[in-house]
Write a structure and sequence with these properties.
The protein contains six helices and two strands. By secondary structure, it is mainly alpha-helical. The chain has a single domain, classed as Winged helix-like DNA-binding domain superfamily/Winged helix DNA-binding domain (Arc Repressor Mutant, subunit A, Orthogonal Bundle). Strands 1-2 form a two-stranded antiparallel sheet. The longest helix is centred in the C-terminal third of the chain and has 23 residues.
């Protein structure tokens, strides 16, 4: 029997692959999973690179690399930050919004496929436990 951590990693890989495939099919093969994650953080609001890095649990340098990549391809733009004159705010462009939406749709389709493959009671139990764990609680 495969250990739980390996099963969790496999599900994560399947989710990343689903998003990558959807983005490639929609003409955004240059956006990988790390870029999609950065776009999602930027889409959440007035975030600086440092705030995005903290939310992603990565270095500012790493997030700066992702943002630079996205900016040169037109997915985000940098603007003066409204709360910090020293920082730049990362704003998602129309092109970036489209990619972010494609990522969300890819995940929604994958979850619906998984849901349709599982008994409804089992799915409800899985979802309850998953939410508790994601929120830092005990199952």
């Amino acid at each position: 029997m495969e250990p739980i951590p390996q099963l969790m990693l496999r599900l994560g890989v399947r989710a990343i692959e689903a998003v990558s495939e959807r983005l490639a099919e929609s003409g955004h093969e240059d956006v990988k999973s790390a870029h999609a994650k950065a776009l999602g953080l930027a889409a959440a609001g007035d975030a600086s690179i440092a705030e995005m890095a903290q939310a992603a649990d990565m270095t500012k340098q790493g997030m700066c690399y992702l943002v630079d990549y996205l900016e040169t391809r037109g997915y985000v733009a940098l603007e003066p930050h409204p709360r910090d004159r020293r920082a730049k705010r990362v704003r998602v462009t129309e092109k970036g919004v489209a990619v972010h939406q494609e990522s969300v749709v890819a995940m929604e389709h994958l979850v619906e496929k998984w849901r349709s493959d599982v008994d409804p009671e089992d799915w409800a139990a899985f979802e309850r436990v998953l939410r508790r764990l994601a929120d830092g609680g005990e199952p």
